[in-house]
Amino acid sequence: MTDTPAAVAVLDAWLDLQCPDCHTALADVDLLRERYGQRLDIRFRHFPLAKNRHAYAAAQAAEEAYAQERGEEYVRALLARTAGLRERGEPVLLEVAEEVGVDSEEIDTALIDGRHLLAVDADQAEGRALGVTGTPTYVIDGRRLDGGRSQEGLRERIEEAADRLLGRG
């Protein structure tokens, strides 16, 4: 008898890093991680909205933070400061970098040289292809679950899909 590896489900969370609702959604992400552990691979994906002037730069800065292995910490800290980002713009990106131990000079350089433009554009293009129009939006097992209008019941719908994929339901 061979051991079969535990099933893993993937949940893509499409976020705009200037979106207050995306910050609120982190509580659901934390509860999902607590419930499923490593059996649910939650990936943060970029979907900067045109209405949020600094979201595209924020996504690029986050990619640099991921390159420095502090990406999720950076994303979480930045989402906690969406109002500041909206009001003060890109200086907030550098301040958050320093707060979480990311090289802020590299963030600044990455914003100038555009080294992460393709990654952000690729996420956004994939999101559009999947029908993402607002944030936060989740995709699990090819099923899109929109949270832009209301977070109400969203985590439960994600859990139903994850339970089905993982053979728990």
Explain what this protein looks like in three dimensions.
- The chain is α+β, with helices and mostly antiparallel strands and 169 residues long.
- The protein has helices at 20-36, 55-67, 71-79, 82-88, 91-100, 104-113, 117-129, 154-165; strands at 9-15, 40-46, 137-140, 143-146.
- The chain has a four-stranded mixed β-sheet with strand order 2-1-3-4.
- Strand 3 and strand 4 (143-146) form a beta hairpin.
- Helix 2 (55-67) crosses helix 6.
- The longest helix is centred in the first third of the chain and has 17 residues, at 20-36.
- The model is unreliable at 1-5 (pLDDT under 50).
In short:
The chain is built from eight helices and four strands, in the order E-H-E-H-H-H-H-H-H-E-E-H. The chain is α+β, with helices and mostly antiparallel strands.
How is the secondary structure organized here?
Layout: E1 9-15, H1 20-36, E2 40-46, H2 55-67, H3 71-79, H4 82-88, H5 91-100, H6 104-113, H7 117-129, E3 137-140, E4 143-146, H8 154-165
Parallel strand pairs: 1-2
Antiparallel strand pairs: 1-3, 3-4
Helix pairs in contact: 2-3, 2-6, 3-5, 5-6
List its salient traits.
169 residues; alpha+beta; 4-stranded mixed β-sheet; globular
The secondary structure category is: alpha+beta
Amino-to-carboxy terminus distance: 25 Å
Helical amount? 40-55%
Shape, per Cα inertia axes:
globular
Let me know the number of strands. Answer: 4
Q: Using the CA coordinates, give the radius of gyration.
A: 16 Å
Strand order, largest beta sheet: 2-1-3-4
Number of helices: 8
Outline the biggest β-sheet: 4 strands, mixed
Low-confidence stretches: 1-5
Mean pLDDT equals 91
Query: H/E series, N to C?
Result: EHEHHHHHHEEH
Which range does the strand content fall in? 5-15%
